Amino acid sequence: QVQLVESGGGLVQPGGSLRLSCAASGFTFSSSAMNWYRQAPGKEREMVAAITSAGGSTNYATSVKGRFTISRDNAKNTVYLQMNSLKPEDTAVYYCYTKRFRSDYWGQGTQVTVSS
Length: 116
What we know:
Blueprint: E1 3-7, E2 10-12, E3 18-25, E4 34-39, E5 46-51, E6 58-60, E7 68-73, E8 78-83, E9 92-100, E10 103-106, E11 110-114
Parallel strand pairs: 2-11
Antiparallel strand pairs: 1-3, 3-8, 4-5, 4-9, 5-6, 7-8, 9-10, 9-11
């Protein structure tokens, strides 16, 4: 079965950096586009970054463009989110997501807290 397991979240000061990882299994990772989403308390879940199956194209939410970088290693079945210049408004639970054959798959999420 499809499994997505995020890691790398934590508490960081404003201006700091974190790198999230999402380990995927149970499907052909190299054929699947991948996304990172986030959900802050009291807010709707929003798409943060997306990457195509081969990694040749990426897309970002306006709020993170220039600060976050999505990448993937198809040999390791892992997608990453490098987050730099973090702001308090980046505080949220971050989720890995993929869509396979009309079904949506989500990881369990990893908490990112940006605070001094």
